[in-house]
Amino acid sequence: MCQQPSSRTSIFAALGRLTYRYRGLILALWVVLLGLGGLFAPRLDSVLHGTGTTYERGEAAQTDRLLEEHLGLDADALTVVFEYAKGGDRISELAIDQRPDIQPLLNDLAALPTVESVSQTTALPGETGNVDYRLISLRVSGGDTNTAIANLLALLDEETPAGVTSYLTGKAVVDYEAQEISKKDLVRAEALSLPLTLIALVFIFGSVVAALLPVVMALATVTVTSGLIYAITQFSEVSIFAVTLTTMLGLGVGIDFTLVMVSRFREELAHRSVLESVVETMATAGEAVFYSGLTTCIGLLSLLLFPVVLLRSLGVAGSLVVLMSVLAALTLVPALLGLLGHQINRWRLLTPSQGAGFWGPFSRRVIRYRVVAIAAVVAIILVLMSPFWQAQWGLGDVNALPASAQARQGVEVLEEAISAGRTAPILVAVTAADGDRLLTPDSVETLYTLVESLTNDDRVASVQSLFNLDPTFDLATYQRLYQTPDRIPLESVAAAVERLSTDDTTLISISSKSDSNTPRSRQLVRELRQKSLPGLTLSVGGATAKSLDTIDIIGQRAPRAIAAIFLVTFVSLTRLFGSVVMPLKAIFLNIMSIGASFGALVFIFQQGHFQTLLNFTPVGYLDILLPIVLFCVLFGLSMDYEVFLLARIKEAYDRTGNNTDAIVEGLECTGRIITSSALLTIIVTASFAFTSIIFVKALGLGIAISVLIDSTLIRAVLVPASMRLMGHWNWWCPTLRRQSFSG
Questions:
Q1: Which residue among 10, 397, 584, 588 sits deepest, i.e. has the most Cβ atoms within 10 Å of its Cβ?
Q2: Model pTM?
Q3: What are the structural domains of the chain?
Q4: Are 598 and 627 in contact (CB under 8 A)?
């Protein structure tokens, strides 16, 4: 495993010769790919519809489907909220007969061809104060849902009476608004990052042609990848956030890889022919790009281990755009470099400093004071990581949208009127075993006792069921009434039986005193699932249960994903460096930078620091999906700099056999390029910190923070200091004998 056959380098050198020889053909093939991508990429928004943030094969999702099948309960129903006001201002109470008439509007909503029904609410008159609401069931799905929501919003905007403010909310509306906001955010982020990136590249390379090449390559890979994702949507569901990650990673990684290739080509071109420069660039920088892209893809592909649409979508989209970036770097970039030759330096605006005057003395100083440097960096990293131990986990809901989003405003108005627990109740489906009749005297007694215990639970605000319809009814009354459910003399009870039960199934709806992302609500769901009812099967659904299912499945699959990333990364880097120590150290250092980033995110987004600057409202927890996505993305991105630096150190070590000199030369040759690459990645990803959706905001900022830490504290200080401290053990491998060398 640790052998390093010379053919490995010759493979990339041979590829360099091929790309130079057939550079015209390669360019033509990429033009065709770009044309196809450009044809389908604009259509991508029309086939992406949901955020895909929940686990849809868990008990909660199955319960929701059971209730829809047996009781017609639409878990995806929309909610239209009406807030009454006088004189344009909110007031504490408005008499029912003083409210503007909304019935004509409700009739027009029900008349829309995409609307199945507009149902009455279960709230009592006056119970919701100045707020009224209705549930809307649609008869469409998929892409047609967005059109239906747009029509509903237009009708509400046109016909809502004066003195009433209307809000449309629900999961489908949250997805619709998230998609619309994401499209605007993406344009804003690109408009901010691309000019800044281009300016930075001009300062890095000094010439306009060299500066344009990384940006053009990145845009090309994003376009081609978007076309591929469009093809994938034809047979698989893809989250709307896949476009955001594709753009973020495509720009960051595409620019990063091309920057490394162009820098090495210009370095070689100073004393070689164009052909030799292309070949040497591919044999060195090309190999580093290949392994760097491989480790990044490994991290992203591990997201496929999670049965959540968002994570799988990001895994597919992210790995595709990285793969296309590697493919472009190893084919299109050397082909263009071969065509351009010395013209790569054309339109020179300035002569950039190579940075050797700084990085050489700096690396020697770090090596000299290596113990102090290691202790200082580790202390700083531990401080940055410390907030992570206080992390609270939840699942992103409507609060992930900006405060201006209609779906969020509607939920906030409704929660203020009827409490958070009633807007997202815990749904308990009770089914008789073996298809027996449910409302037998024994079952009624069991369920009456259950409902009574729930009503007395201090975590429960209210319970809606067939077993607490009237406080004057005792157990015997319910048993007598339900003995013949088709001949119940009380009209209200008969209506409740028809609405809440079938022969073998009934619904118990529980309103918690706290919202769905609180530990108290989750514990209530866990306790309900552990209950055993004789002759009955109990299952729990609703937002709280679905959130809990998602958190649980993430917790179960995360160790496997992390182990897979570690194992494959270890094997690939051992192959590259011919050492078992270097991959282990690289993995450990990656964990440090990622941990520091996680700590910063807890400090910012959970604890609410810098909320004014970043324009968000903290919700007291981190989205459980965020650290998973960040870990898988950051592990690969952080490894980029490790691979670039260590590859150059190993190149020097293989030539000189001196560990210390190799470290100094490696940092001296790559310090400027790694710093430049990190700066560009930070510009691209940090621009997403100023978007509107908290998940995207935290993802962009988390990547930027990790890259900043990684390129300064880790690569510039901790790597050279630790390598000098370890001496010849850096290159130890049990199956490879090395000659002695000076350290």
A1: 397
A2: 0.87
A3: 7-47+175-349+356-392+548-731 (1.20.1640.10), 78-169 (3.30.70.1320), 425-541 (3.30.70)
A4: yes
